[in-house]
Amino acid sequence: MGDRLSDSTAAPNETEGSKSTLASSVYSRLRHDLLHGLIEPDTKLRVEWVVKTYGAGASPVREALNRLAAEGLLGRHDQRGFFVMPVSAEELEELTRTRCWLEELAIRETLANRTPQWEEELVLALHRLSRAPRYLADDPAATNPEWERLHRAFHRALIGACRSRWLLGFCDQLADQAHRYRQIARTGPRARRDELSEHRAIADRAIAGDVDGAVAALLEHYRLTSDISMRQLDARTKRGSEAATKPRRPRAG
């Protein structure tokens, strides 16, 4: 749990006025590491370790951990601290199903209340996404962070006119969880798919007012992503099981 995490700094002297800022900083950095799979699922997070790694005192660290637990990224044992939420094929299936339910409602509401501004924002979001490389040039196995940001912006623009901040908030939360699964499950060679064509098909049908077509294209897009993550997650679980049952050499002495 060390080298790949956010850079840490020495814990500063805290005042009441700085605790909120420190808690927000720890929250943002730890949240990034959780969403990008940089801390293994089921890992126990001791307050002392977080204090040392993220450079803040115990009070702001506990505040950040509580916020992340409320978002479902951390679990909490009574009197025994926090742990990183586990992953499973069953939860991924439930997550995908729920996301499809909510985003179908969101896109239908959006298309029923579409405006010229919504259409312009969607076209611009697709254009920006199309210009960003999916993977880093110097590391073809690594996703481009800018692509990830623009990808999220496209999906947010797609349902942005649904007129419900609650619905948008729920969709954002599920998108975060789906992103976490993609990062944790990703392994081996890249899956072959034309994601830009998928996004164009969704946008084209939405802009044309083809509600059922846009819904079908969006849900197929999410299910394909889920299927890929599911296969990768199964392979990850299998490797873990094989490693656990592999005979170990007796220790010297």
Question: Describe it for me?
Answer:
- It is built from 9 helices and 5 strands.
- The protein has a 3-stranded antiparallel β-sheet with strand order 1-3-2. Strands 4-5 form a two-stranded antiparallel ribbon.
- It folds into 2 domains: 16-84, Winged helix-like DNA-binding domain superfamily/Winged helix DNA-binding domain (Arc Repressor Mutant, subunit A, Orthogonal Bundle); 89-236, Up-down Bundle (Four Helix Bundle (Hemerythrin (Met), subunit A)).
- The two termini are 29 Å apart.
- The chain has helices spanning 16-35, 47-54, 58-70, 89-112, 116-131, 145-158, 165-185, 195-207, 211-245, and strands at 44-45, 74-77, 81-84, 135-136, 139-143.
- α1 crosses α3 (58-70).
- The radius of gyration is 21 Å and the shape is globular.
CATH fold assignment of the largest domain: Four Helix Bundle (Hemerythrin (Met), subunit A)
Overall 3D form: globular
- Spell the H/E element sequence: HEHHEEHHEEHHHH
CATH A-level architecture of the largest domain: Up-down Bundle
Unreliable residue stretches: 2-14, 247-253
What is the count of helical runs? 9
Using DSSP, what is the number of strands?
5
Helix content: 55-70%
Structural class: mainly alpha
Total domains: 2
β-strand amount: 5-15%
Strand order of the largest sheet: 1-3-2
Task: Provide the CATH top-level class of the largest domain.
Answer: Mainly Alpha
Average pLDDT taken over every residue = 87
Distance between the termini: 29 Å
